[in-house]
Amino acid sequence: MFDPHTRKMENLHIPLWLVKDTCWMFEWKLLGVTMIVPTLLMAIYICFITKRMNDVFLNLAITFWITANSYWMCAEFFEFEEWKEAAAFPFGLGFLMALIFYYRGFRAGKAA
């Protein structure tokens, strides 16, 4: 089901994510770390507004991806890289949410 409000939030979310990752690439630590907050909050908000739809699982996958990605960025910025493998946990949860999304879609007869 197409919801214009949800689509608008998803479209706003993309530039937030791009700015955060661009800051990571250029090693702009302060702005990069600051951008974690609005990026993650928007991802959580999108999960909240899609909670009654199958899309919530794909949005949860994105939220876990951003969490892992942000942790990894901080590990590099603040030189605790020996701990960056801990990002595998939220990455794994993201994969699990994506699998649930696709499994439920196939069971309902809709291939994503």
Kindly describe this structure.
This protein has helices spanning 4-26, 29-49, 55-77, 88-107. With 112 residues, the protein is an all-alpha fold. Helix 1 (4-26) runs antiparallel to helix 2 (29-49), helix 2 runs antiparallel to helix 3 (55-77) and helix 3 packs antiparallel against helix 4 (88-107). The two termini are 12 Å apart.
Which stretches are poorly predicted, pLDDT < 50 over at least 5 residues?
none
Strand element count: 0
Radius of gyration equals 15 Å
* Beta-strand residue percentage: under 5%
Shape: flat
Task: List strands and helices in order, with pairings.
Blueprint: H1 4-26, H2 29-49, H3 55-77, H4 88-107
Helix pairs in contact: 1-2, 2-3, 3-4
Please summarize what this structure is.
With 112 residues, this protein is mainly α. Helix content is 78%, strand content 0%.
Descriptive key words:
112 residues, mainly alpha
